[in-house]
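Researcher: I'd like a candidate sequence for this fold, 123 residues long. If you have to choose between options at a position, lean toward the conservative one.
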């Protein structure tokens, strides 16, 4: 199964809003798989239920981590998220998650201060 960044964002948004993870456009298997990815990445804490074949059959999310909240903050603006999808995810599907997050941070910095961050980390 491929990693779906839109689904990852939706899952984190629903957890933050204390909503269930039933999403009409996604199967239970897709949601469970992506919750497992988010757990692996340290974005949330969860219990995973597995069937006899080892497939994840259910999830119980306990909380978002600091890193999960940071990602949500970086992707909260729908315009910025659409721009990230167009300029980062679409042309370079092999980019790592950390590069996406770095791009989002730089774009947010540019919006706030009008220029990209300098190498020293000051505006």
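Model: Candidate sequence:
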């Amino acid at each position: 199964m491929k990693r779906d960044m839109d689904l990852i964002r939706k899952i984190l948004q629903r957890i933050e809003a204390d909503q269930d993870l039933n999403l009409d456009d996604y199967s239970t298997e897709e949601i469970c798989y992506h919750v497992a990815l988010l757990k692996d990445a340290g974005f949330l804490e969860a219990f995973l239920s597995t069937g006899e074949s080892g497939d994840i059959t259910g999830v119980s999310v306990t909380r978002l981590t600091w890193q999960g909240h940071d990602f949500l903050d970086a992707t909260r603006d729908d315009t910025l998220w659409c721009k990230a999808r167009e300029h980062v995810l679409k042309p370079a599907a092999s980019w790592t998650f950390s590069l996406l997050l770095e791009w989002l941070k730089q774009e947010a910095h540019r919006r706030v201060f009008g220029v990209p961050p300098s190498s020293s980390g000051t505006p």
